Amino acid sequence: MRIRDHLAETGAPTFRFRQLIDAWQNTTAETFADVHVLPAALRAELAERFGPRIHTLTPLEVQHGEQVEKVLFASDTGARIETVVSHYRAGWDSMCVSSQAGCGLGCTFCATGAVGLVRNLSADEIASQVMHPHWTRTGLPRPTSVAFMGMGEALANPHLFDALTLLTDPGYAGMSPRRLTVSTVGVAPNLARLVEQHPQVTITLSVHSPFPQQRARIIPLEERFPLARNLDILDRHAAASRRKVYLAYLLIAGVNDGDDHLAAVAELVRRRSRPELFHVSVIRYNAAAGAVPGYRAPSPRRVDEFVNGLIARGVNATRRRQLGADIDAACGQLHAKYLALAPTAGT
């Protein structure tokens, strides 16, 4: 977006940006100097204005797990983020992108929240995770789907909306909005903006407890933007768009996995105007750096019981398949080595 705006302001022909994006999408070009289709003078001007590299992120480290690749990126300013690609045996790839370096919301199950907010990512930095030549250089196709489930609260970053515009722009990434998922703990004003401006984007709302006081201990933003307010927004959205809405439920042993929780979650869904359009995705807790020490994963049997209990009550529910826990790439585990580099007590 920064380069496109600059080219427009300087009066460059519109096809020059298309040539640049074609090189970015279809080659391993990393610097403006590599894009030989552009005039030499324009390549030199862009390099002087934006630095030598086309994109804003540099890969620092790559980790591989079963069906998963996690890349640690650094921005031009030194902020670090992580991006995860999951490779499914059915033949498609899904990318989990970050929207912030760190996160300021302090959710007690999440390593990113323990980092604190370093800064928001720009729209270009968000889109660069998807478009980065690292993927084509390693022989990977562009992802079939992209989820804003990496580091940060996507709806707390105002640049999210420009990033969605870039990713769905036919002249840029050209992705279908239905292939994009925004996950949120519930920033209600921006959730309302999201469903108005990007109604075809898939939305996942983190619930994690149906009881307000307990949810506030898990997700402190509950005190500012209650779950009920966010559900009302999604209720109207589902009725108007007929789009399925996902409710994420992180199951923590002895905390939110009781039969009373199960019954209350089912009732939350049944009270929707179109309950058949709401789907509960149950996630087994992953041990995460910086999370509450007493949090533990429930047994696989309890997860299945919870899912089956929801189904028995007429609620659409599944257990989310998770990949990458062995390399800290699963739900709630990303921290871009900020916690690993933090000083310990007494040092």
Automatic annotation (TrEMBL):
Its cofactor is [4Fe-4S] cluster. One of its GO terms (biological process) is tRNA methylation. It is found in: Cytoplasm. Keywords: 4Fe-4S, Cytoplasm, Iron, Iron-sulfur, Metal-binding, Methyltransferase, S-adenosyl-L-methionine, Transferase. SUPFAM superfamilies: Radical SAM enzymes (SSF102114). InterPro entries: Aldolase_TIM (IPR013785), Methyltransferase_A (IPR040072), rRNA_lsu_MTrfase_RlmN/Cfr (IPR004383), rSAM (IPR007197), rSAM_sf (IPR058240). GO terms for cellular component: cytoplasm. GO terms for molecular function: 4 iron, 4 sulfur cluster binding; metal ion binding; RNA methyltransferase activity. Residues 89-326 form the Radical SAM core domain. The keyword Transferase applies. This is 23S rRNA (Adenine-C8)-methyltransferase.
